[in-house]
Amino acid sequence: MAAAVLGSKKKSGSGIFNTKWEPFIYLAPFLIGIIVFTLYPVINIVLISFKEGYRQITGAFTGYGLGNYARILSDPYFINALKNTAMYVIFVVPISTVLSLFFANLLNQKIKGIAIFQTAFFLPMVTSVTAIGLVWKLMFNDRIGVINAVLGLFGVEPIGWLIDPSMNIWALIIYGIWNMMPFTIILLLSGLQNIDPLYYTAARVDGASSSKQFFRITVPLLAPTIGLTCIINMISASKVFGELFPLFNGSPGTAYNLFTVVYYIYYEFSVSRHLGYAAAASIILFLIVFVFTMIQLYVQRKWKYY
Amino acid sequence: MKKFNVKKFFVYFFLVIGALIMIFPFYWMIINSLKTAQDMTLYPPSWTPSNWFNFENYKVAFEKAPFALYFLNSIIVTISCLIITTFTTIMGAFAFSRLKFKGRDLIFSLLLGLMMVPFEMLVITNYMTVAKIGIIDTLFVLILPFTSSIFYTYILRNFFLSIPDSLYYSARIDGASNWKYLWRIMVPIAKPSLVTITILNAITCWNSFYWTLLVINSDAKRTLPYGLYAFMTEGGSDMKLMMAAATITIVPMIILFLFARKYIVNGVARGGLKG
Amino acid sequence: MQIKIDHLTKKFPDTVAVDDFTMDFESGKLTALLGPSGCGKSTMLNMLAGILPVTEGHIYFDDDDVTDMPPQKRGVGLVFQNYALYPHMTVLENICFPLEIQKVNKAERIEKAKEMAKLVQIDQYLDRLPKELSGGQQQRVAIARALIKNPRLLLLDEPLSNLDARLRLEMREEIRRIQQETKVTTIFVTHDQEEAMSISDSIVLMKNGVLMQVDKPQELYDDPKHQFVASFLGNPPINMIDGKINEDGDFELLDNSTVIKLNSKVGQVGQEVVLGIRPEAITFDEVKNAKAEIIQRYTMGKEELANIKIGSAEIRVYLSSDYTYKTGDIIEITLRDKGVFLFDKESGKRL
User: Fold this and answer.
1) pLDDT tens, A59-89?
2) Which among A3, A8, A17 has CB closest to C73?
3) pTM of the prediction?
4) Between residues 174 and 193 of chain A, which touch chain B (CB distance below 8 Å)?
5) If you measure CA to CA, which chain B residue comes closest to C50?
6) Domain tally for chain A?
7) For A106, A113, B119, C204, which has the most beta carbons within 10 A of its beta carbon?
8) Residue B205, φ and ψ in degrees, nearest 5
9) In angstroms, what CA-CA distances link B260 with A29, A277, B40, B203, B267?
């Protein structure tokens, strides 16, 4: 009987090697988790973002509308959050990419001890932003911090990185660049290692100098990887959040001046309990990520056969 | 010949500078965790502790906050997460790569679409869901929402697809069931991929902060990153204690990294880290 | 075990891979499924193994209708082109695997596996991993693994195509030896006519999913029923000349440039035909069939070949070095009875 089911012809959808329902046994544990904790939340958050006067406890609301969006888009804190996030992305992504490109190129040399250097460069990747953020908090300290001490050697007056609101974002950006580099270097390094060494051999035969090789061969051939890395980094930089907690004792900056988009979601949801605002801000975050993702897919497809 | 050496010198020069900057925070963390109160007041700060074997701060940190308990909680949560996620990932990846069913490709594309939804967007509803189930402020709540990962399933499915069909047919003709084939043949072959996935997942789990911040209140249920953060907000400003606590949090991941660097680097290079 | 295939058809969305195929495979024999790539021979093999569902028709193993029987119940052993050895298992574990699935106890299955390993002469490598073996050795392991469960039918998919030329000759003999020792009904797929000719008891020649001819290797060569069969077998290949039958029943080139007298006049006057002449089927004896001009002579080791022109048609023939003809000489040629075939132009059928 089983034979008849397993082998019967023209049972579209199922193959010879599995029954119709068998795949779903394998899929169930995975799909249940996805449906409950990813698919349903996506749908729900979209709905909540359009619900006016939504109350979390009772689930009551007065009607659907764009009220939440109107409210957060006129909220100076949200506008500020967008500005800060944009600023963070604009500084962190290009600077960490350029530095990473430089170091990835050095790490791609076949020289002694390269494994040790790679270990050093990749290490920050595995650490929690909270723990290592605390170290940065100590290093940024205006009185006893090592950063001001080193700058002092060059005659720079002590900077209130973590107490002067205008300096807060720079502390966050510096920490962000350091944080992003290992990941970026790994992606670029693997891109570099995929470049056929024949190109370099050919260039050397033609007498091209090292810098010429770098700008005429490495950079153009690596362009797709660089582009991709930038966009992945933009997505992750748009979600800057956890870094704020250790630096500013859980506040967004010294004087609530350093909201980011995700911090805003967290704040409206967890502190102010304005679910509708948090939901609307989530959707806006998604739109930002979505645009970057679409660019990424486009770039990936376009450069696939570079 | 001379030019070659100059080039090599500069390569080393910049590598050393870069490497020092990258690992400096770790160095700073460790030496400050060993400093005395008097060491801390120095300006400019001293580059070494006055006594390399001053473990007082660790002792005090352990006394002031239950870091051993946080550590245990982190271990429980991370290991449970790894076991469950690895299981659901293997099963899901197998179904999507090897089994045939209606709508397979459609479901899979939908999942890939979901992959770009940031976790931050889901927390609100997920919070409401776990509140409804009534598991807020338990360790269980730190595990449950992370039992399925589209990203890891996608990575593993791609690896499974690279295993030749003929192995499957061979095993099936020899009478092996799908279940037997999966665990006896496919999983052992996919071991490198699985190790990579597991390690990336372990890092994410261990460092998880945002979700923990929302759903854990009581001291006894804190994991290390959150315990550390709470220690900072509640324990005040004694930075040398903070550094000792931060070291406790980071060291397991550093050890993992040193042993599994190859897998981590391969994993990141292949798919990029989640999130 | 005898295999009976009854009006078997396999349709894929865009092609018909096997088209209304009917034949019997003899029990205990080594049969080659031969044909150019895309002819449906692998599809055929996969349907016999049960990996591919059948669109129409039936397959019988002796009296069992196995058409809808799942592969694991059919009692077939299948050796893939890439051997499909499990890379994480040793040779011994690989060979044992089918018995492990059948829950045969460990001591027994190891004993059986060693016996199999001895049969395929791989017993000194039992603890190695597949990647530590050469292609030929991997092939032996795959055969041992397929044979250990005493299959009713052994199927080999392009068993020699991944091997280099030297190993190919060796494994060819090995497959023949193993098959004769075990007497298991064996079917193997190949696109290499020489391979099929050299070891099989009979050859099934396929083209575009259709069965062209089944016969013993020599019969297939000497007595092709179709133009395709004649042209697929033989190296150097058979010469094919287009023409028609003239009033005398002889063969005349289409441009009327010359007439070749035929030994047996089987065509109808005016019929468009193709004349197939194997390179060895021309002699230079008494009976003269046509005139030809020597275009070029080649020495190929022990043999010598020549291109000759009959009318406007150029053909390649064996030429004994006893002859001293030079390029440009006009000679008279004689067609032997064996190795000369006349085919209907339109259907390709032998006349």
Assistant:
1) 788 889 899 999 999 999 999 999 999 999 9
2) A3
3) 0.85
4) 178, 181-183, 186-187, 189-190
5) B173
6) 2
7) C204
8) -60, -50
9) 28, 42, 35, 11, 11
